[in-house]
Structure formats: C-alpha cells, structure tokens
Amino acid sequence: DADVTQTPRNRITKTGKRIMLECSQTKGHDRMYWYRQDPGLGLRLIYYSFDVKDINKGEISDGYSVSRQAQAKFSLSLESAIPNQTALYFCATSDFGGPVDTQYFGPGTRLTVL
Amino acid sequence: GQQLNQSPQSMFIQEGEDVSMNCTSSSIFNTWLWYKQDPGEGPVLLIALYKAGELTSNGRLTAQFGITRKDSFLNISASIPSDVGIYFCAGLTRGSNYKLTFGKGTLLTVNP
Predict the structure, then answer these.
(1) CA of A107 to nearest chain B CA: how many angstroms apart?
(2) Which single residue of A21, A54, A96, B100 has CA 20 to 30 Å from B79?
(3) A66-84, pLDDT tens digit by residue?
(4) Rounded to an integer, what is the distance from CA A56 to the centroid of its chain?
C-alpha cells in the first residue's frame, strides 16, 4: 500500500464550485504539505502544517484553504474554483527526526476547472 | 522569496550518453535535494546533500553540493530509457522552517 494517498486522482469541475482534495498518510509523519505543479513552473507551496494544530500559508495560498483533521489527514479546499486553478496538486509529508527534512510525495490529483 | 535557477529546461539525448544538469541560487542553502518525477507520479527523492563540497553517488547518479552553498549539479552516466522524466532540484534553509524551494525542473528525454 502507498504511504501517501490522494483522492481523487482526477477531477473535472466547473467555475464557482467548491472542491476538496484529500490526502492521507501512513508514514506517521508530523509535517504535511500541499503543492501545485504547473508546466514549466515546478512545484509551488500552497499550505503546510507541522502538526495538527499548526497551519501555515505557502507562497500561493490565495483562493485555497486547508484543514488538518488528524496527524494522518490534510485536506485542501478550493472555495470557489476558477480556471487558473487547473493544475496538478501534490500532497507531501516529512518527519523532522533525521538530518534533513525529506519530503515524500503522493501520486497527485489532476484538477481541471472549466 | 528564494528562487532556484535550474538548467537546462529540457534535454534530448541518446541512450548511453551522460547527462548533466544544475541549479543555482542567489541564496545560501543548508541542504540540496534532487528529485525525479516519472510521468503520472509524484516526485521521488534521488539524492540528498548536507555539506558544502559534498559529492554523493546513487548508482549512475552523482550530485555535488557547491562550495559556495549556492549551487548544485546532478550527473547521470550511461543513460537508459527509464531515466526519462522531470528532474527537480530543491534547496532547504533552516531559516525558512524547513520549507523546500524547488527549481522549475529539467525534462529529460532518452532516445533508445
């Protein structure tokens, strides 16, 4: 079984709809992240959480919100989806217990906003 | 914010050739990481570099942490078709609460 899972894997929605992307992990990591990937732009951080009570904005948080329901679950919401939020979204986890904060990525959710 | 300049943006090579890509930054990083993303998958960590000047290998992959702490390179020797994918560098600074800053990626295509 995958350590980091994302649901759904693909989603097509319409402008103005509320969308939730979910991420679950079985790695026991404290830290979780949401990124979006656009062609030619690499990965950009949307939000991150270092524990259940901690939520932090990343570099592109406008138009998004998150919820850390438990150590293992971190969801990303688009309150009112717009076409320029069409992208590939990745959840990642890390555990600051070693020499480096290495992030492990889920398989991604491809979101299309029409 | 911090930015990483990754080059080249894309490469088309023949199987068996060696490949080199690099990342530079105006900021100092404490750690450099190299990830690979296969089509339809999330990025996977290839190599982590912790000290300036460090040279680390992982099979046919070799990466170095630049002496100035502002750059890193990744070499792939004797490329094979499964090396196809997007390679990302990422830098980590302790002052940024351990967030990673990613380069924009190098798309590698290997012709059999």
Answers:
(1) 5
(2) B100
(3) 999 999 999 999 999 999 9
(4) 12
Confidence of residue B92 (pLDDT cuts 50, 70, 90): confident
- Check residue B93 and give its pLDDT: 78
CA atoms of A33 and A22, how far apart (whole Å): 12
CB contact under 8 A, B40 and A108: yes
Q: Does the bond joining B112 to the residue before it have cis omega, within 30 degrees of 0?
A: no
- What's the pLDDT at B39? 86
Contact state of A105 with B43 under an 8 Å Cβ cutoff:
yes
Q: Is the distance from CB of B8 to CB of B107 less than 8 angstroms?
A: no
Residues of A with CB under 8 A from a CB of B: 4, 31, 40-45, 48, 50, 56, 58-59, 90, 92, 94, 96, 99-108
Q: A8 is written with which tokens?
A: 């759904």
Residues 6+ apart with CB under 8 A from A62: none
- Across the interface, do A43 and B33 touch by the CB < 8 Å criterion? no
- Cross-chain CB nearest to B42 (options A31, A100, A106): A106
Cα(A16)–Cα(A82) distance, rounded to whole angstroms? 6
- 8 Å CB contact of B31 and A100: yes
**By the 8 A CB rule, do A43 and A79 touch?**
no
